[in-house]
Amino acid sequence: MDALTRRNALRAGGLALLAGVAGCSADAPSGSSGTTTRPCDEDAATWTHDLGGSVGLPPALADGTLYVGRKDGRLVALDPNSGDERWSVDAGIGFTGFTGASPTVADGRVYVVPGEGAGTAGRGFELVALDAETGDREWSKSLDETSFLTFFGVHDGLALVATHDDALANEGERLAAIDHATGDVQWTAEVGDPSDWGVGAGGVYVASYAGVRAIALADGEPRWQKSYGVAGGFDVTANTVVTSVERDTGYRLTGFDPESGSVRWRGPDWSAASHATTDDGVVYAGGERIGAYSADSGAERWTVRGGGLVAAPPIDGRLFARLQSGIHARDPGSGDLLWGTNATLDSPLALSPSLVSYVASPDDPAVPPTLVARHAADGEPALSVTFDDASSLTTPVLADGTVYAATDTGRVTAFQP
After folding, report:
1. Which of 23-32, 128-137, 162-171 has the highest mean pLDDT?
2. How many Å apart are CA 180 and CA 360, to the nearest integer?
3. Model's pTM, two decimal places?
């Protein structure tokens, strides 16, 4: 039997890509890394920017700037309204997409993890913090010479990053907390190869192949440890850690005390492989069924038959679920179906108050993928774009009625349905 490896167990998030948009060429800004084109007709993209190299990190939009990484390690910041380049910088040895992270913006800095694989080990992996306005490097940190790195985000002024390798285990890796302003390591703690994580109630919760560890955010001291697998990561609300615990027949929604790890409640018998929470203490779960529960007690609020994976907390009064062959929007207070549509998805759902967007998966692999957007209020089509020379698409990004996506060949596009 082949050894269980991280590459076999985890998919690099979001790197499914599209290619080619018709446009009218425009001169590139002086010193830029690519070119921007404007559409020749109303049906084309609002703008298209050629990065001048293949995409390694999918786009991320934050604080009015669209960030995207090339495979050669160059990070590019674009104006989301025009597609014009604001800055570009060589951030490291390369972006492979295997690290699974889009550029992350927090506290005026944009964080990326460049590096490349070297067999079953990593090479050149480091956490890099750049000034979000200028692209100037503020600091970088490498934990060792051979590990891959996974970035957990910035929490309470600490940038959290964990080592891992290509052989999954429940121990032997390090979680490091780095001061977001100086780049100095504040503490390290032992973890397994991270598959899921969450932060809240003063703790960091890390799942590996078949185990869970809870670590104090303030000082890295261990809180508790469990010896089973989980699904859907960790949500923290109402001072309760919520996750889906593996069992023989699937996954069971479970609430834990964040300090002690004691089980506060166990959810319904049906398998719930996904979940999302709200700040006011509601847990939405999806799997064999879809339901809503109180985070502090696990008490059921409603449950409906018909499976689906919960994509996110409710947005503008709609709870969205991804089905095997469709999308449902439900009333978060009752579970009543607001609308549903048939769809075969080749990407996660991108959600906003006005639009739902995704990459459609064709039945015939010879047919290029299609970028789709629907009106969030009723599910009616708002955009459908198929490109004859496409291979695949990044997961769409939504903001202010605009849909953004990028191609593996280095083309970033914006549409306004």
Report:
1. 128-137
2. 38
3. 0.88
